[in-house]
Amino acid sequence: MGPPSGTPEPRSPPPLPAVRPLLQRRLPARGRGARVERLRSRRQSPQGSRGTCATRRHPPQVSCLKELVARVVQRLCERGARNVLAFGFALLDGARGGPPLAFTSSVRSYLPNTVTETLRGSGAWGLLLRRVGDDVLAHLLTCCALYVLVAPSCAYQVCGPPLYDLCVPAAVARPLGSPGHSPGTWKDLRPTRQAWKSGARRRRRGKSGSSPPLAKRPRRSVTPEPEQGTHRPSAQAHRGDSKPHAVTPARVAAESASWEGGPLGTRLTTAQPSQGPQGVPHQPAHPETKHFLYCSGGRERLRPSFLLSALPPSLTGARKLVETVFLGSAPWRAGASHRTRRLPARYWRMRPLFQELLGNHARCPYRALLRTHCPLRAQRPVAAPEENTDPRRLVRLLRQHSSPWQVYTFLRACLCRLVPPALWGSRHNQRRFLRNVKKFISLGKHAKLSPQELMWKMKVQDCAWLRGSPGDVPAAEHRRREGVLARLLCWLMGTYVVELLRSFFYVTETTFQKNRLFFYRKSVWSPLQTLGVRQHRTSVRLRELSAAEVRSQREARATLLTSRLRFLPKPGGLRPIVNMDYVAGARALCRDKKIQHLTSQVKTLFSVLNYERARHPRLLGASVLGMDDIHRAWHDFVLRVRAQDPAPRLYFVKVDVTGAYDALPQDRLAEVVANVLRPHENTYCLRRYAVVRRTAQGHVRRSFKRHVSTFADLPPYMRQFVERLQETTSLRDSVVVEQSYSLNEASSSLFQLFLSLVYNHVIRIGGKSYIQCQGIPQGSVLSTLLCSLCYGDMERRLFPGIQQDGLLLRLVDDFLLVTPHLKRAQAFLRTLVRGVPEYGCSANLQKTAVNFPVEDMALGSTAPLQLPAHCLFPWCGLLLDTQTLEVSCDYSSYARTSIRSSLTFSQGTRPGRSLRHKLFALLRLKCCALFLDLQVNSVRTVYANMYKIFLLQAYRFHACVLQFPFDQPVRKNPAFFLRVISDTASRCYALLKARNTGMSLGAKGASGLFPSEAARWLCLQAFLLKLARHSGTYRCLLGALRAAQGHLCRQLPRATLAALEAAADPSLTADFKTILD
């Protein structure tokens, strides 16, 4: 239980049941030393027991509360400890920072810490100090994690290491064959009171004999330590507040180190994990597809710095290769000093095999193998200069991608030439590995292979080079050999195969095939990229920086974000993606605190713009930010229209803007943002905090957030802040940890930052630097919000009364107008087709549609697509009935695509649990309120919408089953898969009830508007339709599913059953027939 809060309450409430699991963990002993032993001796000494009652109740208090807290903060800063109490404080650095903090000699405050300030002035904490004394309270603040409960269901942390750091690294794999889980996980946490009682029992037992104190945790330093590993922040910027994900120290350090441990100019470092005994391989990394994505360059060759190319084919080179592969040594570099160490006998015997491997690599004709297995199509004669920009040439090049089979045959040929047969051990092992290679390149964008999958069905006994002597060996030795072989396979897949793909192919996803990967030979991608750069330079007016300008910027150390440009193939061309996440020198981002600070300021600007958008919704005009906004606006509009008698005829207009991001005028955008921020007028207060919560499945999730306010609505202290979060947001059952707090974020400085990002945005293309003179980059965290603000200003000026009796919606750059006035619809269409140059807005007629006749002469150009007056009108993945205004989902985007390529199935060691989590998360996303709202849609439409959701879920179920590792068939555990299908129906029905609160949906006897039996029937029908096509795989499930559906048919009324059968009519699901899986 946490200490008393900032208010003078001598007694705090008991721990809330929902938050208690997060507060269970007891910290390891840290920094106790002689003071704790002295406290124990006082409790055990006869003199202490003979003391008076007053002495026992009131231990000696030497310092006041402010002095004690200051002394604790100074001690924490000197140790470099990560403690919530010391956030915002740092040691004085010479003359920097001004005078020291009161009651300290060498500590300064560079950011406010409201938790510490509350503690220093709290009467309740002062009472606690008088009761327990200096030593005990100092020990609690230094070595323990304490929390203050905030009703109704949350808490905030007062001191101790931040809660999100107290976890087991999820990225570290367990040794192969080791059962169970590592100690200290969240599952091992005990209730707080139980931990306190058990600690008291240990202290009582300590009278007869006390155990030695636990080892201290390694300290962290605030000075650079080049010989130690540093958790460096990822170069990827977050889109606003980070999404909740699993807690790992690497991720935590990546997102919070710059704001918790010290001010600008300091760096937190952590000691490397100690390696195991000599000769035991370290844990292999997971081969991931992201390691070979987007590797551009015109030359098809291996890098000279690649390990196999840099090492000579000798015993010395073989030794260095063995050390790198098995012992985790740093990759060998020519000319660098390397300390030689004694090689264990196990690896000493491997040198001849790896010498042969190096020789095979030196003789391997990689380019000839590439031309043989991935040939290029016959080239046409050299084109004229004006034909180089022909769109038909661009389309021809886009079609010249190599198939996964061709890439696999190339990799197979290289591996067969590289790896000696003795290293495989047998043809069986070689075939198993090649099968995994084929699987690896067929995975999606975010997939990876685990060492367990690589070792599946590999025969360790076939590898003679693993055996020191013939005969049987203990189980421990066999597991050790498994680990050695696993390390070799992970290196072959994660280093050698990945290097081949990086060196000879440009691998990317596309806009039309979800996460499926396409492989372009670099000799094909290089002219493609040249055409894309030429088109992009024309559309956004890039100005090349001279060498002198680049040199002057480097000398001035201007903190300008330098973005990289890449292209995404689409059916008719290339889509430019200017990614501000990739910064020049991003790999060493942690070393340059100025760039890191600038990245944080961009996120602050994003938070401030969002704050102003929430305060003044009119700024965005008709913009909607997601399906929830669309549902609210459409729901109100439908009820308003249906209240009219007779119902008017409605005219629909859909307009897509051509190159919205690239065409925005920068001067107009600067004017719009100036009206939002109002420079020289506003000052913002920014609080950075972390939220740690425990999910229903028992997983701990954390997310980093920013809260912006002004002095008018500022919650000054953490208790008021957490109370407001619980009132205004969905924060429940969580622990809040304050990271930093700023009271002087001036709008003028934020506006200057915005101007520098817009007018001085540097793009790196092919080794050259350019300034973008028009538009904004698509890859920025600010792009969508800036585009919405600009178009919102355009709507207020050009269409002030267009929403009268109608509805105007805009999802970024996709407009939808629904109005009963034909002239208003025609005027709106005419304005956007002719264009609005001052806002860079011009309609793309190929994606523009109406449901009324339009003449070419009326627009001055080709007429857009004209649909019937009564139709299903498509807009942003929705199908809108122009007469009834009912809404359904548009599944045409799934045509000719693979479901397996559209989802990433994290298999891991428990694929069944991963399947459930993945399917249910996707189900929740698809069950939008717009499709299940019975006030907007009729019951028959909701039947059809739910059936299509279940059918798509059945396709995803099949895709996940196909990706199950270790050849696990469905027949081994049919009960599990039947339970997944049953839970799918129950969860979808629960979401239906949540979307229609206040309505009575079902009653006893399968009666009512929408009984639960109807949802179960639709689910069974959808899964039977899909799984029956693969009867060989699901034969063990089909009988049980048919029996369950037959039982439901006998329960449901005839009218309901007829409506369900009509909703499941095959003619309504024609889009699903073209899905490739």
Automatic annotation (TrEMBL):
Function comment: Telomerase is a ribonucleoprotein enzyme essential for the replication of chromosome termini in most eukaryotes. Active in progenitor and cancer cells. Inactive, or very low activity, in normal somatic cells. Catalytic component of the teleromerase holoenzyme complex whose main activity is the elongation of telomeres by acting as a reverse transcriptase that adds simple sequence repeats to chromosome ends by copying a template sequence within the RNA component of the enzyme.
UniProt name for this protein: Telomerase reverse transcriptase
Domain Reverse transcriptase: 549-880
Catalysed reactions listed for this entry: DNA(n) + a 2'-deoxyribonucleoside 5'-triphosphate = DNA(n+1) + diphosphate
Subcellular localization, as worded in the UniProt entry: Chromosome, Telomere; Cytoplasm; Nucleus, PML body; Nucleus, Nucleolus
Claim: ATP-binding is one of the keywords in the record: no
GO BP annotations listed: telomere maintenance via telomerase
Family annotation (InterPro entries): DNA/RNA_pol_sf (IPR043502), RT_dom (IPR000477), Telomerase_RBD (IPR021891), Telomerase_RT (IPR003545), TERT_C (IPR049139)
Family to which this protein belongs: Belongs to the reverse transcriptase family. Telomerase subfamily.
Biased composition (Pro residues): 1-18
GO molecular function: metal ion binding; telomerase activity; telomerase RNA binding; telomeric DNA binding
Gene3D superfamilies on file: 1.10.132.70, 1.10.357.90, 3.30.70.2630
